[in-house]
């Protein structure tokens, strides 16, 4: 029996292995859009009903405008690179929540939330674009689906990994809530450092594609570092992330590459 299970896992790994566009990182994901997106959209809708959407029309419009520009750039990239069916599955939406938490997140399928608390860190439109690009990158690279795949393997012992499970199944719902914690104040899973670093890089490329200044991605993390050094408790946004100093260093190093990739892939 153990041999059969091991063989099944090997076959599952081979079948579900793919490559993240642009970065080229290998990933394992057994969660199809048809499986995960309906639950993602439902969770997002529930979150909006339970949390106060900002009444600040100016900042809401700015967040949504930036989100629209970046998502359009990503959509153009996908359609130009044989990812039309994936592009069709995204339902981009951007909301600003009246909450002092220093955080932002994106659900699978393109559902984004910004909290008011992160706006001082963003400081300007390009700073908003830096954070937005990072969050959109999580959805683009399917980091949530990877995390779900990993969690299924841990919870279910890797056997069958619940392929074909619908989102009404209690075990699936329990797993989803455990990973995403939508009912909590933070409202988003803790990605791995690998995912965070990849989202930083992809986000920089995407903000350039959308016409924003990539240097501001570095400045966002400088401001975040200054906040962390002020004696305040680290924001939830940084809970499992690379250190501010590491991100600043990595983004400075990656900036020339991001500019070249944006030129290569941008669709006019």
UniProtKB/TrEMBL annotation:
Domain of life: Bacteria
Annotated GO biological process: proteolysis involved in protein catabolic process
Family matches, as Pfam families: Peptidase_M48 (PF01435)
All copies of domain Peptidase M48, residue ranges: 73-253
Entry's cofactor comment: Binds 1 zinc ion per subunit.
Keyword tRNA-binding applies: no
Cofactor: Zn(2+)
Keyword annotations from UniProtKB, A to Z: Hydrolase, Metal-binding, Metalloprotease, Protease, Zinc
Protease recorded as keyword: yes
GO cellular component: membrane
A GO molecular-function descriptor: metalloendopeptidase activity
Family label: Belongs to the peptidase M48 family.
Protein name: M48 family peptidase
Protein source organism: Gramella jeungdoensis
